[in-house]
Amino acid sequence: MSDPTPAVPGAARTDEAETRPNAGAAFGISLEEYLLPAARRIQLIGEDGTLLAPEEQGTEPGHEYPLPSAEELLAAYRHLVIGRRVNDQAYALVRQGRMAVYPSSHGQEASEVAAAVCLGEDDWLFPTYRDTVAVIARGVPPLEVMVAYQGTWHQGYDPQKHRVSIQSTPLTTQMLHAVGMAKAARLRGEEVVCLAMVGDGGTSEGDFHEALNFAAVFKLPVIFFVQNNKFAISVPFAKQSAAPSLAHKAVGYGLAGERVDGNDLGALLAVLGRAVELCRQGQGPFLVEADTYRMQAHTNTDDPSRYRDDAEVKEWEARDPLRRMTAYLESTGALTEEVSAQIARDAEDVAQQLRDAMNAETELDPLELFDHVYSVQTPQLAAQRAQLAEELSRSEHQEA
């Protein structure tokens, strides 16, 4: 079919991309400068816990990020300490046979905490299987989170109550769920921001690209938060993508991207906080890449020595987010011995609760497997449930 627009000598057609609003105008930069991440990753606090000079922070015009207040940092730091304790306690419980599996986020806790605390009460978090610390920091009781890893229940918490989706084992399906939730909220006129978490390996899945494209086309209030911990199980990042960074993938879909030091709690809160506010103002979506590292094995069934060496792990130990934020808060006087001791007690209380719950013997009802799969049970499930009930009854009579 021919183009009905009459040709005008010497006149070029106006491209749709050239006529769309420049989202960077409010920051005094071009649309391209707004969409592309800053040339260097954003980092506000150095690895030794000192506040970096402005010229060392990676910020540039349109990509400035002031450090959050001492009160905000201290509140997030409490979740950081608890998160580290939860990770280490859960790992120990797996070794003791009290939990079936646990994907630890030891070393990534700053990213986990920032993802949770940057959201408002009515916003939604869509985590992966590794994001237990984020789920707990969002307000879900730790005991309700861990039953899934113990294998005693499908999922222990109510997503609607906590505005936290169930932890996703299939890679990147939660990103599509986040986009769908954001679209539904938009149709209902609700000011809801959705944050979907994903690992670097998940960005190689088709759902990742579909989610970004849909969110960008409809300008949905979604933050795609990528924790680049350098390995998709055993596959290093260099074998996953040739892009300069995962944040650079955003511009191809027409959304803004930013790269941040994933072990710098202050920088994470600043970058994600601004992304949330801009999404709430209708300027989303955003892609934020956290540059971090998985210190421990993928899960307890993994042997990381087969694909990385100890020297690499040692290098990242110096960048520990907990040690870094402790040093910074102590230097400012915000973290006193009294406050530190109270936070440590809070973390140990959580660990003790986990130990008590995981060590308790639980009576399981196999028929519960069929509950809550659908709101109305399908005929197939009902038949399967009846078959299992008959087998269990027959087994009980034989034992008697």
From TrEMBL:
GO terms for biological process: branched-chain amino acid catabolic process. Keywords: Oxidoreductase, Pyruvate, Thiamine pyrophosphate. The gene is pdhA_1. It comes from the Bacteria. It catalyses: N(6)-[(R)-lipoyl]-L-lysyl-[protein] + 3-methyl-2-oxobutanoate + H(+) = N(6)-[(R)-S(8)-2-methylpropanoyldihydrolipoyl]-L-lysyl-[protein] + CO2. Residues 1-21 are annotated as: Disordered. One of its GO terms (molecular function) is branched-chain 2-oxo acid dehydrogenase activity. InterPro entries: Alpha-ketoacid_DH_E1_comp, DH_E1, THDP-binding. Its EC number is 1.2.4.4. It is an enzyme of class 1 (oxidoreductase). The keyword Chaperone does not apply. SUPFAM superfamilies: Thiamin diphosphate-binding fold (THDP-binding). Belongs to the BCKDHA family. This is 2-oxoisovalerate dehydrogenase subunit alpha. It holds the Pfam family E1_dh. Residues 80-355 form the Dehydrogenase E1 component domain. The branched-chain alpha-keto dehydrogenase complex catalyzes the overall conversion of alpha-keto acids to acyl-CoA and CO(2). It contains multiple copies of three enzymatic components: branched-chain alpha-keto acid decarboxylase (E1), lipoamide acyltransferase (E2) and lipoamide dehydrogenase (E3). Its cofactor is thiamine diphosphate. CDD domains: TPP_E1_PDC_ADC_BCADC (cd02000).
